[in-house]
Amino acid sequence: MEYPGPSRVATLGSLMGVASLALPWLTVRSSRLAEGESISLLGTANTLTAVLIAALWVVVLALSLRPATRMNAYALACLGATLLPLTLLTAGMGAERLLADAPAVARASLGGAVWLSLLAGYFVLHTSLSALKDRPCARRVLMLIAPGLILLLGLLGAFESLALSAEFTGNEQRLARETGRHLALALGSVFIGALIAVPLGIAATRHRRTERPIFLIASTIETVPSLALFGLIIAPLAALSFAYPALRELGIRGVGAAPALIALILYSLLPIVHNTYAGLKQVSPAALDAGRGMGMSNRQLSWRVEYPLAIPLIGEGIRTATIQSVGNTAVAALIGAGGLGHFIFQGLGQAAPDLILLGALSVIALALVLDTVARSAIKMLTPRGLRREGD
């Protein structure tokens, strides 16, 4: 089976991978805050490993320029799944060798080449898997190879000498605590936001007079920068907490979780309102007529026809709001709400790039996990007749 033409995304990824060979792979510092020395691939790995990585990227480039057949897609997927863990393993082993005789405070950080190579490998792997939609089992296996190998290497201690791993080890308990706070703020705000936004979306569908003001308010809130919205909420909450000391006893102050939660709830409204409105509007009139023909009342039509058919779009709105909330919660650390943003801003204050990466990568990982869970939940809640083939 032949697919039309070579993949431009795979070609771009392979070119990025080839370009990464010329960039620094590691940055070695005498201490956490010292100026670093850039180390090339040949300085990071032995000659055989460096030649192997270069050869694999050249092969990927050659394959990406060929017409996309099924065998070509399999080959590219296998190469992409191999290069991702190989890149990290090379960096980890190089860091261990370079720091063997260095002081305990020395650090070896991942260089730009490693990040570029990982992004390139993802491009190649993702594009190749997209070309194998008619092979779902093979796709799942190939999709799990790279993360499985990376997790295994991590458990075996292959990355312990990297500065990012050192930051994780030094902040492990705090990271777990802040992850819990991050989750509580993000999911709590979306849950409360959904309780408000879904009825608003239904009201906008049922009553034309309410449609414009609902969308105007929700859209206006969305345009306010997150830091500015936090600032707007701080002043009135601070005034209320001083006027009513009982509120301070409940934890409602000008800074902390309370203003962050309010701001995050407001940010979650627009995607949920919009998708609720769109989901109800797209219900086929024929389905409603069929329900009426069966003798259903308006309430029965809503609960047995409209809402079930609108659930996929409403779920997508909640999923979007969840991922958005995970990102915005990181900013809430600036007003004392805690969360994974603590590491990002602490790293910025201390000029510690690996601490910044620890926070940023944790936020990204959390967003990806929640996105996967939300997609699975939407799939389960979608009526069987509306599911796409292959889902």
Features:
391 residues, mainly alpha, MetI-like fold
Descriptive report:
This protein is an all-alpha fold and 391 residues long. The chain has two domains: 8-162; 172-386, MetI-like fold (Orthogonal Bundle). It is built from 16 helices and three strands. The protein has helices spanning 8-20, 41-44, 47-64, 70-98, 112-130, 136-155, 163-170, 172-206, 208-223, 226-243, 245-249, 257-281, 285-293, 298-331, 341-350, 353-381; strands at residues 26-29, 37-39, 107-110. Strands 2-1-3 form a three-stranded antiparallel sheet. The protein is flat and about 75 Å long. The relative contact order is 0.09. The model has no long low-confidence stretch (mean pLDDT 87).
